[in-house]
Protein: DinB superfamily protein
Organism: Ornithinimicrobium tianjinense
Amino acid sequence: MATFYTAGERAVLEGFVDVQREQIAALLDDLTEEEARLRLVPSLTTPLALVTHAIFVEKVWFHHRLAGRTRAEVGIPETVDESFVPREGETIASALGAYRAACEESRAIAAGHDLDHELQWREKSISLRYLYGHMTAELARHAGHGDILVEQIRACR
């Protein structure tokens, strides 16, 4: 990835999101299929679940809201909780492949809009600029959760 430290506004915003996308994908590095599914907290949060949720986040924001497609068209559940449940037969490789594909499509969708483009969210308008900030925060928060889980998993090996 090219450095974006002194780039223009859009490249900086895209760069921050891409850094966090890579942090999410890296959660599954060197984990076994069993470890990726370990539940160490009462919620549905596991390293694999964080990646499947990130797929949902990409699709709900970029594919559904920004591109204007229905949830059914992009294949996402109606509730956030459902997004933390890996699909039947989901593997680390299939989740990472789906995540990378979702991110690539998100980039392509966003490329067709300027930063001032507005989309609807909770009965208000938000800009693509705001969406990039939201995505950075969302992915960073979940990457942090995942870092802690992975640290615990590796300590128990």
In short: Residues 9-155 form a domain with the Four Helix Bundle (Hemerythrin (Met), subunit A) fold (CATH 1.20.120.450). The chain has a mean pLDDT of 96. Helices lie at 9-26, 33-36, 47-66, 71-74, 92-111, 128-155. Residues 33 and 91 are 7 Å apart (CA to CA).
